[in-house]
Amino acid sequence: MKYHGQEVEILTLKKVFGKEIAEIKILSTGELKSVHFSDLSKDKDIPAENEIYFKAIAGKIKAEIYKQTLFSPLESSVIPLPHQILALEKIMSGQFLRFLIADEVGMGKTIEAGLVLKELKIRGIVKKTLIIVPKSAMSQWQAELKKHFNESFKIYDSEYINALSKTFARIETEANINLFKQHSQIIVSMDALKPLISRSGWSKEKIEEYNNYRINSVLDADFDLLIIDECHKVGGSNPLVGRFLMAETLCNAIPNVLLLSATPHRGKGDHFRRVLKLLDADAFSDDEDTSLAKLMPYVVRTEKRQAVDYEGKKLFNKRFTRKIEVHYDDELHKKQKMLYEAVTEYVIDGFNLAQQTKNNSYAFIMLLFQRMMSSSTQAILYAMEKRYEKLQKEKDIFGQELTHNPADEIDISKIRNLQNDDDEHFLNYDEYTDFDQELDDILNETLVNYEVEQSILKKLVQKAKDCMSIETDAKVDFLLDKLKELKAEEGNPDLKFLIFTDFTATQYMLKEVLEDKGGYYCDIINGSMDTDQRLTALKKFKKETQILICTDAAGESLNMQFAHIIINYDIPWNPMILEQRIGRVDRIGQKHEVKAINIMLDNSIDKRVYEVIETKLTQIMEQLGIDKTSDVLDSTLEQDQVNQLYLNSLLKPDQFDEISEQWLSEIKSKLLKYKSTEGILPTMASKDISVNKTDALKHSPLHIWLENLTKKYLDNKNITYELILDGLKFKFPGYGENIYTFNIKDNIDNPIPEPVSLQHNIIQTIISEAVPYTESQNIPIVKLQNFTSCKGFWSLWHLEVQNQLEAIHIIQPIFISDEGDYFPAYAQDLWNKLVQEDNILTCTDVVSGEDKSKYFFSMFEHAESILHSKYQEFESKIIANTAKIKQNKERNFAFQERQMNRIGIENIKKFRLNKLFKEKEMWFSNFDETIQIVPKLNCLLIFKVEE
């Protein structure tokens, strides 16, 4: 019987005040209703063939679901690579979901985290997720989670939090409004969330209010999954730094935690243990034990050398790196050569003065001046003019010549304004900061002998202007020729180039020259641009711009694998920064051999440093069997030591060989130590990284089945649809007309159709209406077309063996001939035909009356007999798992209790613990009832086959 088109089961039928009332159960939803019997309609005399196809396909999809141990790969627009599938399996099989994903750079850690997030949501474990990332990566995370997993996240940056907190503070309510309860999926930057301990000029009350709208609100919002990207940045130099306190507080309160970092160790054991303690403070106490066995249950790591693509080939292509020395032409670059020599003399004198007066800030300026001179005339002119203006301004203010007082020491930590990161600071230029910005800050604090220096600077500025008015920089001339040569080599006039420079003055100069003289369409990305501006420039580079000129501050977190040629216009004297630049294009999805061209002036200062850092260091790493493209250098090289090496090349050329050998010896020692520290991170076994599972996903027919299921359902409901270029266009009940695509992996870049996966509401609605048959329903009689007929009954059965802790399913087709014989192969073949082909059968009549119940129960008995061994197998598995589940649950409750007891905010701690204790008491009090095994056997589809 049906009620408003829905299959129902009549539970009771009685007369009340003369009215015939039926108690019914709507089979698709389980809803119970009392209705007039006259509102019920009988089954069609002869059911439509589309209903049979629809139920056969629905059964096939359910069977596929029950075979899967992981669902998120089916629900994403990306086919996970073999190492990503392996990582997902390990994470989801853990006793607790608290893991460090430590894959090397470019291996797709964001995708792995997205797969885990999706899997947890599908299983109903996670409903609220908080992702903490560096500010520069917020938009990228948001875009990738939407693109690949159709998960929408709200970005909470500092400006948004400040605006909301001010708004909520003005609203008068009995209870404070929690801004982190306004969205269930949030991305927030590290420094927008970390708690304040103190701040100059702030009262205790203001600090408490600040923290209340941040870390305290997050704790109260009850998130159940926390993801921290670049988690090495929260390790801190000690347990009291703001970022670590934030991470520790949240990891204690949130049950599921994913930490992501390619370089979690960084050569510092105490820092590494602090990161690990975020996962399990008891397992990783302050002792020295971070052995492989201890790390194994918590760490997922795949190295680049292990990674393979879908065909089992190496995932990363070979690189081609070439150093090119640019010579000053005696005629074309005469003034540049003279300027270089004059600036070098000024730098050496200035650095000697800085050493005598112990002025570290001025020493840093001299270092940058020399680097700027190697970059471009424009860069050094900009720096010298800024320096001259600063000196003049101070003279005007004080009205007299000032000399530096050695007692006026400058706090060199101000050079690296890393948003109060509390980490130790070095005399260095950070790899993610534009040097010009640092220079401006330092110039505001440096005092020297004005008259002498202004006189020198005035002459140098004039030399630089003369040079620029007459000559083109030697490196620019070379670059213009090299770009033409590369386009010819590649046979591509539209070839894209990614150019890196250290200085924004050089960046803007290059853009102007390349557009005016080369006719190129160029764009820039630097640290002064916000995230949206960077992403806009990146999108333009992908679609139309030929050249993108970047600084390192802008290159962080951006993926550019659609280009494959990198030109390092300025060489950073840190090999890891060079690797990170190349890593912007040498990523998953790169189809070409990556070409990296390192440009340097033919001068002895730079050549000596390059020989040591690029050539000799590479040889040492090869001897030790360490791949330079890995993240080892980031853990072993410190920028201040690299700077010192550069200074020694400038100031002590006669001693440079001895100094550099000593430095290389120290680095070699650190690299050896690496092999016993970060080198002990457990990695995936290469033999386990197989293409078998990705093959199954790559060739999965699920999207075809979902589309056919939808079409047959719409046909059965007499709902029209139109197949167009972008997908299937129809108006589903309760929805507006829309275009849908079922092949979400191939349509990833098409914004027009709405992606439809297994978890989509439309599919869930359709599958819910594929209700089981009951003995009261008519059984269709069919004739088969283009398929060998055998008289008998074909049926599809769903066996579910479950208790309240787990369930095991199987869907089995069964064919019993009129003679009572069981033909399993015939049953399976006919099911496949129903799923794959149209017009396989025609409904001619129905089995009705008393016969339908007799035949239905006869088939039920056959199904019960055939599936009896499966029932026993499933029952044994569930019984065996029960003790393990109970033990794991006890450990889980105990672990959560220990974590919650570490929450520093007393009222939140009490609330969380009370909630946990109630959940624990209820779970164990109901345990005996929970483990009772209940089998279910339902008929999903049945029909009689006539010859």
Which helices and strands appear, and what pairs or packs with what?
Elements: E1 2-3, E2 6-16, E3 19-26, E4 32-36, E5 40-41, H1 49-67, H2 72-75, H3 82-92, E6 98-101, H4 109-122, E7 129-133, H5 138-149, E8 154-156, H6 158-170, E9 185-189, H7 190-193, H8 204-212, H9 215-220, E10 225-228, H10 242-253, E11 256-260, H11 269-277, H12 292-295, E12 299-300, E13 319-326, H13 334-357, H14 360-375, H15 377-398, H16 435-443, H17 450-470, H18 474-490, E14 497-500, H19 504-516, E15 522-525, H20 531-543, E16 547-550, H21 552-555, E17 565-568, H22 575-582, E18 594-601, H23 604-623, H24 632-636, H25 639-651, H26 656-674, H27 692-698, H28 702-716, E19 721-724, E20 727-730, E21 738-741, E22 754-755, H29 761-768, E23 779-784, E24 792-802, E25 807-817, H30 824-836, E26 841-847, H31 849-866, H32 868-900, H33 906-925, H34 927-930, E27 934-946
Parallel strand pairs: 6-11, 6-12, 7-9, 7-10, 8-9, 10-11, 13-18, 14-16, 14-17, 15-16, 17-18, 21-22, 23-27
Antiparallel strand pairs: 1-2, 1-5, 2-3, 3-4, 19-20, 20-21, 23-26, 24-25, 24-27
Feature tags:
single chain; 947 residues; alpha/beta; Rossmann fold; 7-stranded parallel sheet; 6-stranded parallel sheet; 46% helix; 16% strand; elongated
